[in-house]
Design a protein that fits this description.
Blueprint lengths: L1 E10 L2 E11 L4 E5 L6 H8 L7 E6 L2 E2 L4 H7 E4 L11 H11 L4 H14 L15 H13 L5 E5 L7 H16 L3 E5 L3 H7 L2 E6 L2 E7 H5 L4 H11 L1
The structure holds adenosine-5'-triphosphate.
Length: 236
C-alpha cells in the first residue's frame, strides 16, 4: 500500500531523513517511533506528497507519487500533527467540504459523519464555528474528516495528542477496524504503550535513519517496547 524506497531529505545540508526504506501492506497498522527531531514528520510529509525530497521514491497503492500524485492522494488521508482547519466554517460545513472534495455521496457522508461524530462525541458541536473549538475538538474533527472518504491508506502524525481518554479509545477502535477491513495505517507516536498494543509492525527512526523495523514482536523481543526502544537507541 505504501512503499518508501531510499528516501533522503536534507534541510540546509543536514540530513533530516537518511536513506529510509519501508513497506506497509494492506492490513498493517504501522507505528513509527523516535525521539524529537528524529525525522518522523519529515518522512510522513514526504510520503504523502507535501514535502519535496532529494532522493528516493514513494509508491502508494501501486502508483508513483512523483508521476501520479492525484491517483495517490485519492486513496490517502493525512492528518498532520497540528491540523490547520478553517475557523470561520462550522464543523459540519468543514466535513461537507472534505466530502465534496473526495466525492463522497450524500447518504454515505451523512451515515459516516453521524457514526464517527457519535463515537468521538462531537455530534453536539458540529453546528458550532471551528474557531470556538478546543484543541481536542479540532483534533476530533480532523480525524473524522480523515476517515470520511474511507481512505485505503491513513497517515497520521501524532493522532492521540490532545484527545481525552474515551476519544483515544474510540480512535484505536476505528484504526483497528480500518486495518481489519484491509486498509493500512502509518502513524507516528510518542506513546509507546499505545504503539505496542495497537500495532502489528513498528519502525524506529534515529537521526534520520531507520534503525529497527519489523513485527512488533520482533522489535520488542522479550522485553517491553519501551525497553527495546531505549536499548536500540543506546546501542546504535
Ligand atoms: N522546515 C525545516 N527547516 C529546517 N530543518 C527542519 C525543518 N523541519 C524539520 N527540520 C529538522 O529535521 C529534523 C527532523 O525533524 P522532524 O520534524 O521530522 O522530526 P520528528 O521526529 O517529527 O520530531 P518530533 O517528535 O519532535 O515531532 C530535525 O533536526 C529538525 O530540526
Amino acid at each position: 500500500m505504501l512503499r518508501i524506497d531510499h528516501l533522503t531529505k536534507t534541510y540546509g545540508g543536514k540530513k533530516a531523513v537518511d536513506d529510509v526504506s519501508l513497506t506497509i501492506h494492506a492490513g498493517d497498522l504501522f507505528g513509527f517511533i523516535g525521539h524529537n527531531g528524529a525525522g518522523k514528520t519529515t518522512t510522513i510529509r514526504s510520503a504523502v506528497g507535501i514535502l519535496d525530497f532529494e532522493q528516493g521514491s514513494i509508491m502508494v497503492d501501486g502508483h508513483s507519487l512523483e508521476d501520479e500524485p492525484l491517483a495517490c492522494k485519492q486513496v490517502i488521508a493525512y492528518l498532520p500533527d497540528n491540523p490547520d482547519l478553517y475557523d470561520y466554517l462550522t464543523g459540519i460545513q468543514y466535513l461537507s467540504f472534505i466530502a465534496d472534495i473526495f466525492r463522497v455521496g450524500k447518504q454515505e457522508r451523512e451515515e459516516r459523519i453521524a457514526d464517527y461524530s457519535k463515537r468521538l462525541e462531537l455530534t453536539a458541536n458540529l453546528g458550532d464555528l471551528i474557531g470556538s473549538y478546543s484543541h481536542g475538538m479540532k483534533q476530533k474533527l480532523a480525524l473524522i474528516s480523515a476517515f470520511l472518504h474511507k481512505p485505503r491508506l491513513l497517515v497520521l502524525d501524532e493522532p492521540f495528542v490532545g484527545l481525552d481518554p474515551s476519544a483515544a479509545f474510540r480512535l484505536k477502535e476505528m484504526m483497528k477496524e480500518m486495518c481489519d477491513q484491509g486498509g493500512a495505517i502509518f502513524f507516528s507516536t510518542h506513546v509507546l504503550d499505545v504503539a505496542e498494543k495497537l500495532c502489528n509492525r513498528i519502525g524506529i527512526i534515529k537521526g534520520g535513519r531507520l534503525i529497527a523495523c519489523g513485527s512488533t514482536e520482533e522489535v520488542r523481543g522479550d522485553s517491553s517496547l519501551e525497553h527495546a526502544f531505549l536499548e536500540v537507541l543506546d546501542n546504535d
